[in-house]
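agent> Task received from the user: take the single chain below, predict its 3D structure, and emit structure tokens. No templates, no multimer pairing.
agent> Plan: (1) validate residues, (2) run structure prediction, (3) serialize to tokens, (4) report one or two observations.
agent> Step 1 OK, no nonstandard residues flagged.
tool_call: predict_structure(input=
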Amino acid sequence: MAERKTERATDGVTVARNFIARLGKAKFRRFIKLLSENVSGEVIAREFGVSRERVRQWKNAFGSVVQTYVVSPQVKRLTR
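)
tool_result: status=success, residues=80
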């Protein structure tokens, strides 16, 4: 049973709903926008008045980071 409570507590939708209930939908939209613009956790934390750790927790709850490796065009030309 304890495992189920933990699962619910970390569910992204639940965390998002709690965020909206506490801070409002406008701030939620702002938070998501800042994440999509790759604004640093420090800057976001300052704006929202929370710790960088809280920003990291929200970020991980709301989605996932996707990294892509792009070979520079100059190096790519060498493969031809």
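agent> Step 4: summary for the user.
The CA atoms of residues 11 and 20 lie 14 Å apart.
agent> Done.
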